[in-house]
Design a protein that fits this description.
Chaperone protein DnaJ; three-stranded mixed sheet; HSP40/DnaJ_pept-bd; 25% helix; cytoplasm; Helix Hairpins
Length: 376
C-alpha cells in the first residue's frame, strides 16, 4: 500500500490547508479532463483517496496509528499477526456484513464553525456599536452553485462499486475466509464520481473568499465575550449548510478610564491649593463633560462617584458608575513670592516651627502635621 503522505507530497505533520493545497495542485494535472492517460487516471484515484483519508481527522488519526485507515495492522494490537485481518474487520464482518453495509455517503456536509477576534474601544463596550469586519472563510462556489460539477454535467455512477459506495473484499483469518466491507477507493464512499469537476472549486462546491460582515456588538461586552452568529461560519461541501461564526471580543485600553465590572475608574490630579480650598473640575466622560466637586480638605486617595455614567449592564437594566480618584499634587518648584506666601500660611496656622524639620528628629513630620491641620 502506498504512503498517503508520499502520494500527496506532504510531510506527516502537514496542516489541513497544506494537504488541501497539495491535492488541488495534483488534481489540476491528473484529472481525466486534463490528462486522459490510464496512468494519470490511476494516479488521480490514489491522490483522491489519500486526500480523503488525510483530510478527515478521524481517518487520519487511525492511519497515523496503524498505517491503514481501516484500523488494522500486522501487530498483535491491531489483529492477528500475518493475517492482515484486524479486530475492526471482525466487527465489520459480524455487525455489518455484506448485506448490512451502509449505503453511499452524501456529498452534502455541513461547514465547520469559525472563530475570529475583534477589537473594540471602551466607548463601544459602554454603549454597543456596529462594526464592519472582513472574514476569510469558505463560501459556496457561485459558478457551480455548490454542486462541484462543471456546468451541464452531473456526478456519474462509480464503475468500481456501481454506486454502492463500498466494496467487498475476501480476507483470510483464523475464522477462515471472510468477506468484509470497505469504502470504495475510487469514489471515496460517495457512490458517484465527479468526472468533470468545476474549474473554480475543483469539485469541493466551495471556495475560499474574503467577505464583509456587519457585527452588532451589544452594550456591556468585555474582553473574552463571545458572540455566536448562526449560519455565518464556513460553507459546507456539496452545497451543504454553513457552520456558525463565533466572534471573541477584545476591549482596547482607554487613556482616561479603567474598568472594574460595570464601573469606570478615573484619576484626577488636583493642585494642593484646590484640594485645601475646594473647587469644581470638569471631567470628560463618555456622556460628555461632567462637573466633579472637590470638597475642601480633599486628600490623595479619596474618591467621589458619578452615578449611572459607567458601563451598560450586559444582562440587566441600568449602568454602572464612574468613580473618580483624587491625587493631590504638591508643588515641587516655588518662586520667592510663592515660598513667602506658604511661610506666611504656616505662621497663620501655627506651623512655622515645623518648617525645615525632618522625619528623623520629630515624632511627626511637617507634612503629616500639615495634613492634620487641614483636617481640623
Amino acid at each position: 500500500m502506498s504512503d498517503h503522505y508520499q502520494t500527496l507530497g506532504v510531510s506527516r505533520d502537514a496542516s489541513p490547508e497544506e494537504i488541501k493545497k497539495a491535492y488541488r495542485k495534483k488534481a489540476r494535472t491528473l484529472h481525466p479532463d486534463v490528462n486522459p492517460s490510464p496512468e494519470a487516471a490511476e494516479e488521480f484515484k490514489r491522490v483522491s483517496h489519500a486526500h480523503d483519508v488525510l483530510s478527515d481527522p478521524d481517518k487520519r488519526r487511525v492511519y497515523d496509528a496503524t498505517g491503514n485507515e481501516n484500523g488494522n495492522n500486522t501487530g498483535f494490537g491491531g489483529g492477528f499477526p500475518g493475517s492482515g485481518f484486524g479486530f475492526s474487520d471482525i466487527f465489520e464482518t459480524f455487525f455489518q456484513g455484506a448485506g448490512g453495509a451502509r449505503g453511499p455517503e452524501s456529498r452534502v456536509r455541513q461547514g465547520q464553525d469559525a472563530l475570529i477576534n475583534v477589537r473594540v474601544s471602551l466607548r463601544d463596550a459602554v454603549f454597543g456599536t456596529e462594526k464592519e469586519v472582513t472574514v476569510d472563510t469558505a463560501v459556496t462556489c457561485t459558478l457551480c452553485e455548490g454542486q462541484g460539477t462543471e456546468k451541464g454535467t452531473e456526478p456519474e455512477t462509480c464503475d468500481v462499486c456501481h454506486g454502492q459506495g463500498h466494496i467487498q473484499r475476501q480476507v483470510q483469518s483464523i475464522l477462515g475466509n471472510v468477506v468484509t466491507t470497505a469504502e470504495c477507493p475510487s469514489c471515496r464512499g460517495f457512490g458517484t464520481v465527479i468526472k468533470h469537476p468545476c474549474p473554480e472549486c475543483y469539485g469541493e462546491g466551495r471556495v475560499r473568499q474574503r467577505k464583509p460582515l456587519t457585527l452588532k456588538i451589544p452594550a456591556g461586552v468585555a474582553t473574552g465575550t463571545r458572540i455566536r452568529l448562526g449560519g455565518q461560519g464556513e460553507a459546507g461541501t456539496g452545497g451543504g449548510p454553513n457552520g456558525d461564526l463565533y466572534v471573541e471580543l477584545r476591549v482596547n485600553p482607554d487613556e482616561t478610564f479603567t474598568r472594574e465590572g460595570d464601573d469606570l475608574h478615573a484619576t484626577m490630579t488636583v493642585p494642593m491649593t484646590a484640594a485645601a480650598l475646594g473647587t469644581t473640575i470638569s471631567l470628560e466622560t463618555f456622556d460628555g463633560p461632567q462637573d466633579v466637586t472637590v470638597k475642601p480638605g480633599t486628600q490623595t486617595g479619596q474618591t467621589t462617584t458619578l452615578r449611572d455614567l459607567g458601563v451598560t449592564k450586559l444582562r440587566g437594566n441600568g449602568r454602572g458608575n464612574v468613580v473618580v480618584h483624587f491625587d493631590v499634587e504638591t508643588p515641587s518648584k516655588l518662586n520667592d513670592e510663592q515660598r513667602e506666601l506658604l511661610k506666611r500660611l504656616a505662621e497663620l496656622r501655627g506651623e512655622d516651627d515645623a518648617v525645615g524639620e525632618t522625619l528623623q528628629n520629630t515624632g511627626q513630620g511637617f507634612f503629616s502635621r500639615l495634613r492634620d491641620r487641614f483636617q481640623d
